[in-house]
Design goal:
The protein is of the alpha/beta class and 250 residues long. The protein is built from eleven helices and eight strands. The chain has an eight-stranded parallel beta sheet with strand order 7-6-5-4-3-2-1-8.
Length: 250
């Protein structure tokens, strides 16, 4: 089954009105591969700005996180409805920084996923192991635990879900899983989906890779059969993000 290549840019807590205008201008002016689904995830304060900047283009805008409740006394949080109202069509959920810096549990991430999908947001569902867990041979054990929390809140319809496999040890460290390592894990994730959700979901859901993706390593990674795109961190703030989007043209 053909799966549309997906490239997301997670800006994390970076950017100003001026610097993000430079990025949006660059992406609007570039000749982006029309076959690639492109999404950018700015800080919440700039969702509306980038949604306006990319109005009329094929570049989508994502929240970096949403709360599972519709409203209430949750200082600093944004709801799914707020993200949508600002122009987001996607949200990242379960990113390792939310898990390991802010202490989000699998159950909370699952609840957020259920709320986001019910609201109409497309979910970029992040999973991945720490370095010690990989060294201990627990990569799939960790990924399956995280995937199960997503599965329990998604059900049978995964059409609005993109899985992002991001080994924690490779995020922002300069370390990158080799194409073979990344492909092996992606294939194992797809096999788990086939056995535990359905073969149709396994064949259709996109599994993208994240972890120090850049303009130099993206082409070889993109050639792997089960890597359907990237969730890009630091490089999404740079001109090379265009090269990553267009990596399948080479």
């Amino acid at each position: 089954m053909s799966r549309q290549f997906f490239v997301g840019g997670n800006f994390k807590m970076n950017g100003t009105t001026e610097s993000l205008t430079v990025i949006s201008d660059r992406l609007r002016e570039a000749e982006l591969d029309s076959k690639v689904e492109v999404v950018v995830a700015p800080p919440a304060a700039y969702i509306s700005k980038l949604a306006a900047d990319f109005s009329g283009t094929k570049v989508g805008v994502s929240a970096q996180n949403v709360h599972e409740k519709a409203s209430g006394a949750f200082t600093g949080e944004i709801s799914c409805a707020m993200a949508l109202d600002c122009g987001a069509k996607y949200t990242i959920l379960g990113h390792s920084e939310r898990r390991h810096v802010f202490g989000e549990s699998n159950s909370q991430i699952g609840a957020k996923t259920k709320a986001a999908l019910a609201s109409g947001l497309i979910v970029i569902a992040c999973i991945g192991e720490k370095e010690q867990e990989r060294e201990d041979g627990k990569t799939m054990e960790v990924c399956i635990e995280q995937l199960t929390a997503f599965k329990n809140n998604i059900g049978d319809d995964w059409s609005n879900v993109v899985i992002a496999y991001e080994p924690v040890w490779a995020i922002g460290t300069g370390k990158v899983a080799t194409p073979d390592i990344a492909q092996e894990t992606h294939a194992n994730i797809r096999a788990w989906l086939s056995a535990n959700v359905s073969p149709d979901v396994a064949a259709s859901v996109r599994i993208i890779y994240g972890g120090s993706v850049n303009g130099k390593n993206c082409v070889e990674l993109s050639r792997q059969g089960d890597i359907d795109g990237f969730l890009v961190g630091g490089a999404s703030l740079k001109p090379e993000f265009v090269d990553i989007i267009n990596c399948q043209r080479t």
